[in-house]
């Protein structure tokens, strides 16, 4: 009998309807899906339902042929790993979950994250695996890696606050040294997305101290890269250039994609300094690489910088064209970046004396960014004229 069937059996035996059992907890339809076997409930849900049914959580766990089911799960995991078959991986995880095999749950969910990092069910499975691991101390060897993947999964779907929360939780639990360093770097990246540049700077600096003592070039490069972004936003251009160059020199031998991303960042910094020929040189090389590699997000970001180049040259037509190229590259992905491009279009329309079109573009940005529109506008680029930022903010006020 599976867990849903056991919950249903106990509920009926106590004369409770589905609505009565979950009153004040969650929607009846959620319980219905659990009882019908469509959903595997996380540990917290099992605990609250067990309390309502006046049994221990273990009572709700299914009683099955342990050895036969584990053999089947191992076979599914092996097949899924060999063929990249997500369905096999997911089915094996569910069996390991029912059998309370925490180590195998962690191993399987890591394989799941490798195959399909953006899978809709992955976040729940990562969270449940972590909860079971914490409840079954001592912590399994794969626990910390799975916890990092939880943060990474939140990051990959744009839930940056949840990602930062997960990374902070790891750091607060005093993980092994190498896990702490990786988590500090990931936390810095999440904080940049949240515009929390001071804290991001501290996170990268702390990680870098550990990296340098261990000569870990890849992590050190990520630290220098992140520090370059932070220093730029904090108005420290010279330090931004220095740290971005350090990252650039490290990436050249270890990560070709990151090398061109820092090439791109150097172009952005020279653009801040109004050195347009030098900026265009760096940005053009990054653009070519991104086009050849089908890197749509980075491609849109470079088009944003080319729009800024045209803006500084008062070439409104070219600036609009670059914004549209960026939007086409995204293909409805990355709403935050698409929102930035619409904000740029609004700025261009204001400069052209077309306030109605500016408002239309801001409405598009608002539909993508929601209540973050004011924050994104304020951090669009450090050197944007304050009056222009205020004008854009005034356009957004009626919508916020």
How would you characterize the overall build of this protein?
By secondary structure, this protein is mainly alpha-helical. The protein folds into four domains: 3-63, 434 Repressor (Amino-terminal Domain), CATH 1.10.260.40; 64-139; 158-254, Serine Threonine Protein Phosphatase 5, Tetratricopeptide repeat, CATH 1.25.40; 275-400, Serine Threonine Protein Phosphatase 5, Tetratricopeptide repeat, CATH 1.25.40.10. 77% of the residues lie in helices and 0% in strands. It is built from 23 helices and no strands. It has helices at 3-13, 18-21, 28-35, 43-53, 57-60, 66-83, 86-98, 102-115, 122-135, 143-156, 160-172, 177-193, 197-214, 217-233, 237-251, 256-272, 276-293, 296-312, 316-330, 335-351, 355-369, 373-378, 386-396. It starts with a helix and ends with a helix. The model has no long low-confidence stretch (mean pLDDT 88).
Largest sheet: none
Q: Which second-level CATH architecture of the largest domain applies?
A: Alpha Horseshoe
Q: What is the strand content?
A: under 5%
CATH domain class name of the largest domain? Mainly Alpha
Give a summary of the structure in a few sentences.
The protein has 400 residues and is mainly alpha-helical. The chain is built from 23 helices and no strands.
